[in-house]
Design brief:
43% helix, six-stranded parallel β-sheet, binds nicotinamide-adenine-dinucleotide, binds fe (ii) ion, alpha/beta, 512 residues
Length: 512
């Protein structure tokens, strides 16, 4: 096995960890420049904790709290001069990715005396001021990376700067700071972290260790989707999501990001779309592009999230993000020309051409309103159907897992139902295995109407999947090829009442 892996940041996690582990800050210097935005560090309590920790150590501090979202070079020059004027010899950055990245870049500008016009030159020495980070979002993983992403007006996009000295010396992960974050901030940042772990897997620099970290992060994020969608995240969920986003940082610190981030940056620069949302709007169609050449990689991405197909991810993202922003074709052409020049394009296991990038953008932002096809299904209304019409109660037959792949008769369609542990304990089925129920439903007129046209092709391998998303079940009608799927939702209470009334036949009874 050949592998390279580096992550020099000390990571301390837990409620109150900043004050409890204040001594971790002591070796960094005598006086900190606290770099943050105008409000969230105060509102979340992180700023008070940072001041308490520094005071406990007898370290001085100055506060620079003027970092906007998607920071540009202006605040870096100002922040560096505040550091110099106050004799600060290290940086303590608190916030989402914007203040953390700005804090890292200020440490570089102040420590190295880099003139702002040369900021993106890529060559830096080893005098970057020591950095500590306190994330208040579960997104960027910047607390565990050697990158700072800065708005680059000359290039009209966002550009990453990278240097070993930009790895924070220490990161304090306290999920209680995220209690003040809105649903919108949580959704956008978790999707950023999702994209980091996904891109780690489809990077041509992926390795066994980064794959393992990404797998762990994706399983945590996948399990949190229902609560994230419903805005009912518990303290435990926030804790796990923060852990997952730091794992995502450890992943991209070693694999880099890919074409997805390259494609997201122009959307943020030109249309002010939040970074995570920008990635999320194109994620499914980017994966559909990768899947054509490397279905194995997409499988590796979906499996830890317990998803059967890209359609599940598509609908999950649609429920989280709502409708995509309207784009003209001229805009998409401009963004394609921009994205293709980014360094991380070449980092993808499947490298897109400019035409591919444009096609992915077009798929992501198309509004053709058709109900089949990955891209189009995303924009279809999220439609709830009456469950009984499609899974008639009288005709449900369970089968043991070992039979789940048996060929079926012309009049039956296999169904795979994935239940959350909670629902599995509430509903009793004759045959369950690992939270999954396998069965068959009898073909009926409604189903026949679904499996017409394009969906009728590949008739011999059609299937129905039901995934438990808490308040709703996601139904995927699949005809065997992953790009021909129709997806609908059913209210969970309907599924529960259906199975309560259902005449479940034993596995060996074939006559309906
Ligand atoms: N360095 C890296 O490796 C890396 C990786 C990915 C993204 N990024 C960069 O990170 C930036 C995005 O960071 P982000 O997504 O964390 O957003 P952000 O830092 O811009 O914050 C978004 C919003 O959330 C608010 N907020 C943050 N924490 C809050 C809290 N606890 N309570 C209430 N409000 C809170 C902020 O005030 C802001 O309005 C982008 O510039 C992106 O390019 C960096
Ligand atoms: Fe990111």
């Amino acid at each position: 096995m050949q592998m390279k892996y580096q992550m020099p940041t000390r990571v301390v996690m837990g409620t109150g960890c900043l004050v409890k582990n204040a001594e971790e800050l002591a070796p960094l210097g005598d006086k900190a420049l606290i770099v943050t935005g105008s409000s969230s560090a105060r509102a979340s309590g992180a700023l008070d904790d940072a001041i308490a920790a520094l005071t406990k150590n007898g370290q001085g501090f100055a506060v620079y709290d003027k970092i906007p979202a998607n920071p540009g070079t202006g605040c870096l020059a100002e922040g560096a001069s505040v550091a110099r004027m106050n004799g600060c010899d290290f940086v303590l950055a608190i916030g989402g990715g914007s203040p953390m990245d700005a804090g890292k870049a200020i440490a570089l500008v102040a420590g190295e005396n880099v003139p702002i016009p040369e900021l993106f030159c890529g060559k830096y020495g080893d005098s970057i001021l020591p950095i500590a980070c306190v994330p208040t979002t579960a997104g960027t993983g910047s607390e565990a990376t050697q990158y700072a992403i800065i708005t680059n007006d000359a290039a009209e996009t966002k550009t990453g700067i990278a240097a070993p000295g930009l790895f924070p010396r220490v990161a304090f992960l306290d999920a209680t700071y995220m209690k003040t974050a809105s649903r919108n901030t949580m959704v956008n940042t978790v999707i950023d972290s999702l994209s980091h772990s996904i891109e780690g897997i489809i990077s041509n620099r992926a390795g066994p260790l980064t794959d393992a970290l990404a797998h762990e992060a994706l399983s945590i994020i996948g399990a949190a989707f229902p609560a994230l969608t419903a805005n009912t995240l518990s303290d435990g969920d926030r804790d796990r999501l923060l852990y997952a986003s730091t794992l995502g940082g450890m992943v991209i610190a070693n694999t880099g990001t890919t074409a997805l981030h390259a494609m997201g940056y122009p959307l943020t620069y030109s249309r002010d779309i939040d970074h995570g949302r920008a990635n999320g709007l194109i994620l499914a169609d980017f994966l559909a592009f990768v899947q054509k050449t490397r279905p194995d990689l997409v499988q590796k991405v979906l499996e830890p999230m317990k998803m059967n197909s890209l359609a599940s991810l598509c609908f999950t993202l649609a429920r989280l993000l709502g409708k995509p922003d309207a784009m003209t074709d001229a805009e998409l052409e401009k963004y394609s020309a921009k994205a293709i020049t980014a360094k991380n394009i070449a980092n993808s296991a499947v490298v897109p051409t400019e035409r591919d990038v444009l096609a992915i953008y077009r798929d992501s932002f198309s509004r053709s309103g058709q109900t089949t096809g990955l891209a189009n299904s995303r924009h279809a209304t999220i439609e709830f159907i009456a469950c009984e019409d499609y899974l008639p109660a009288k005709h449900f037959r369970t089968v043991p897992p070992r039979l789940k792949d048996v060929p079926f008769g012309k009049t039956e369609i296999p169904v795979m139902i994935e239940l959350s542990p909670k629902l599995a304990s509430e509903m009793s089925f004759p045959v369950t295995w690992d939270g999954k129920v396998f069965g068959y439903v009898h073909d009926n007129e409604r189903l026949a109407s679904i499996f017409t046209g394009d969906m009728a092709k590949g008739y011999d391998s059609r299937r129905i999947y039901l995934n438990d998303w808490g308040d709703a079940f996601l139904l995927t009608f699949e005809n065997g090829t992953r790009d021909r799927e129709i997806t609908r939702f059913v209210h969970t209470r309907e599924i529960q009442s259906l199975f309560a009334r259902c005449n479940i036949l034993p596995e060996n009874v074939y006559e309906m």
